[in-house]
Amino acid sequence: MSRPGPLPVDPLAEAKRQWIAHGWTTTADGMTVVTSVMRAQQLLQAKVDAALRPFELSFARYELLRLLAFSREGVLPLSSVVSRLQVHPTSVSSTAERLVKDTLVRRSRHPYDGRAAMLELTEAGRELVERATAALNAEVFTDPGVDPDDAAELIAIVARMRRRAGDFADPRPQPDPL
């Protein structure tokens, strides 16, 4: 159910006020950071979902197709997909199976390791991911809802947060993380 318009008060600011009123002053900023980022993710996810809906793609399916399209030959080992998408192997396998069923990806044995699988983008998959990328660029990425200066600052803050969480290691890989 969608709201007809903006709320008259920021519920996250009210939550912070309540946190402080209940004596949790030292954790109020942390709670606000976490809930603010989670709410921002919900807002961005809704925009992404709306842009991908005409293509019958979830963001997980789109990411896998886009990753394959970025590779030199449209083929990657399943283990590389898992590593690069930073998602549990079961989730990647499930997503890949749906893409195989829809003939957007082919799954085959690894040429040198019979236990491993390869994922290959089909022409239908390549065509679909290009159209979906054009829609995401036009409807979401061109204007994610923050001005360019704020975007650069937000990207840097989140990159520092990710690095501290162990998402990637220093020295920085090439190209530099955002």
From TrEMBL:
Lineage: superkingdom: Bacteria
SUPFAM superfamilies reported in the protein's UniProt record: Winged helix' DNA-binding domain
Pfam families, alphabetized: MarR
Keywords, sorted A to Z: DNA-binding
Molecular function (Gene Ontology), one example: DNA binding
Gene3D superfamilies noted in UniProt: Winged helix-like DNA-binding domain superfamily/Winged helix DNA-binding domain
InterPro entries in the cross-refs: HTH_MarR-typ (IPR000835), MarR/SlyA-like (IPR039422), WH-like_DNA-bd_sf (IPR036388), WH_DNA-bd_sf (IPR036390)
A single BP term in Gene Ontology: response to stress
Domain HTH marR-type: 30-163
Family matches, as PANTHER family: TRANSCRIPTIONAL REGULATOR, MARR FAMILY, TRANSCRIPTIONAL REPRESSOR MPRA
Name of protein: DNA-binding MarR family transcriptional regulator
Organism: Microbacterium pseudoresistens
